[in-house]
Amino acid sequence: VQLVESGGGLVQTGGSLRLSCAASGTIFSDNTMGWYRQAPGKQRELVAHITNGGSTYYVDSVKGRFAISRDNAKNTVYLQMNSLKPEDTAVYYCNTVPGLRIYWGQGTQVAVFS
User: Fold this and answer.
1) Facing residues of 47 across strands?
2) What is the mean pLDDT of each run of 10 residues along the chain (114 residues)?
3) Pair type for strands 9-12 and 17-23
């Protein structure tokens, strides 16, 4: 296993979670890293990504609420999620951007209840 996601859980609307993804150095170095999510019955979507230089992208639905960051020394990428909504409920995955099939892991479940 080369990408390990953690930090998901059950949280009330308006709450916060911080997801972490530990990657092997060969994956992390020089790659844009992203957080994806897949809700039940929906396609997987890219939520946010961060380049090796720190430039970020967010899908419109999470702008102003989520923040992606990376620690290159620890080969770890984070997703701080604030003001969570029920529609954020999904399994969250990290991967390179674009995502490579061999790197999809088990993900971490986020469930937001109202």
Assistant:
1) none
2) 91 98 83 96 97 96 98 94 98 95 94 96
3) unpaired
